Amino acid sequence: MNRLSLPPVLFVCLGNICRSPLAEAAYRHALAGAGLAGQADSAGTGDWHVGHPPDPRAIAVAAGSGIDISHYRARQVSAEDFHRFGHIVALDRNNLGDLARIAPAGATARLSLLLDWAPGREGHGVADPYYGDEEGFAVTWQEVGMGARGLLSALTAQGGHS
Ligand code: 4NP
């Protein structure tokens, strides 16, 4: 039996249809691969795509790794998220700045940049692939995988207490 209690993690990008759903999927995959249970979700700072499934190119790149994200639905980050989640992980610096700006007083979630959890990639944002091509989504998938695995390693090394 695994007694590790991991904090719930929310991944946040701009639209919640490309990068943060892929980050959520990569983190869930890392959890499953490690035989761990943990909660994860994703959201966007913007509201343009609320209720929409992920971008077809994001669905396709995850499907290439045998992961189905077609049932995910976009939502906008809310004030409540800053209390519900132990970690809110931004995909790029703009997202991180927006989150810091809208964080309610007394917020308990720890804010971070996804690639700050990836050794050697600290300080980097995950570029928005929305206006690019499929190749961009392959890069996104690689990057969110590095961040998600690094985050899970850090959380498990801390015994799940941070
Ligand atoms: P995401 O990509 O933030 O990775 O989900 C975007 C998707 C849509 C838009 C912007 C970014 N948009 O402006 O509609």
Architecture blueprint of SSEs:
Elements: E1 9-13, H1 19-33, E2 40-44, H2 56-63, H3 81-84, E3 87-90, H4 93-102, E4 110-113, H5 134-157
Parallel strand pairs: 1-2, 1-3, 3-4
The protein binds 4-nitrophenyl phosphate (4NP).
Fold-level CATH name: Rossmann fold
**Tally of strands:** 4
CATH architecture level-2 label:
3-Layer(aba) Sandwich
Instruction: Give the termini distance in whole angstroms.
Output: 21 Å
Overall form: globular
Radius of gyration: 14 Å
Helix/strand-derived category reads alpha/beta
Describe the structure.
With 162 residues, the chain is α/β, with parallel strands linked by helices. It has one domain: Rossmann fold (3-Layer(aba) Sandwich). The protein has helices at 19-33, 56-63, 81-84, 93-102, 134-157, and strands spanning 9-13, 40-44, 87-90, 110-113. A four-stranded parallel beta sheet has the order 2-1-3-4. Strand 1 (9-13), helix 1 (19-33) and strand 2 (40-44) form a beta-alpha-beta unit. Helix 1 crosses helix 5 and helix 2 (56-63) crosses helix 5 (134-157). The longest helix is centred in the last third of the chain and has 24 residues, at 134-157. The chain is globular. The model has no long low-confidence stretch (mean pLDDT 96). Bound molecules: 4-nitrophenyl phosphate. 4-nitrophenyl phosphate (4NP) is lined by residues 13-19, 48, 128, 130.
Q: Notable features of this structure?
A:
single chain, 162 residues, alpha/beta, Rossmann fold, 4-stranded parallel sheet, 4 strands, binds 4-nitrophenyl phosphate
